[in-house]
Amino acid sequence: xxxxxxxxxxxxxxxxxxxxxxxxxxxxxxxxxxxxxxxxxxxxxxxxxxxxxxxxxxxxxxxxxxxxxxxxxxxxxxxxxxxxxxxxxxxxxxxxxxxxxxxxxxxxxxxxxxxxxxxxxxxxxxxxxxxxxxxxxxxxxxxxxxxxxxxxxxxxxxxxxxxxxxxxxxxxxxxxxxxxxxxxxxxxxxxxxxxxxxxxxxxxxxxxxxxxxxxxxxx
Length: 219
Known about the structure:
The chain folds into 2 domains: about 1-100; about 100-210, no CATH class. Helix content is about 45%, strand content about 10%. It is built from 7 helices and 4 strands, in the order βαβββαααααα.
């Protein structure tokens, strides 16, 4: 584990809490997923966090996760509430990228949604991560999925992953969660079981007409 910056934005007590929570979460994840060894965690004091949680996280490599925490909101408190959930979500991406590295940079909207949905369902089911992006309204989610399917390469990635101009949030995450819930129900496999199932195979398991999923995202 590495803390950045190395100054005083995270006090020793915060670092101790974060290190302990991270170690426990990693041990539990390793019992469920084929993780890289070693797995590096970079912890950054930052204000570039989610308003809902006070933290944010990302994974671009199979052996490296970055976790951001806003010290103004109490780093130890934020860690206690959200670090385990965030690490389960990001560890899923990291494990998946070990074998399916190409999915880290995918531009296919369905693959984006499925990747985030898998990580979200895994964290929800195994770490009780009931975050805003894991909840969807069954009455409207199919329509959101159809809308997402129509988006082409000129459309904005952030609007559909995070906050849309009309006020909706987490569209791709929620669509992906809905799709993965359907796959889990139909196959009897958990998100952990599906960690190395290629996106192309998951598409075959989605209960949506495949010809509707043509859009790509732009980075």
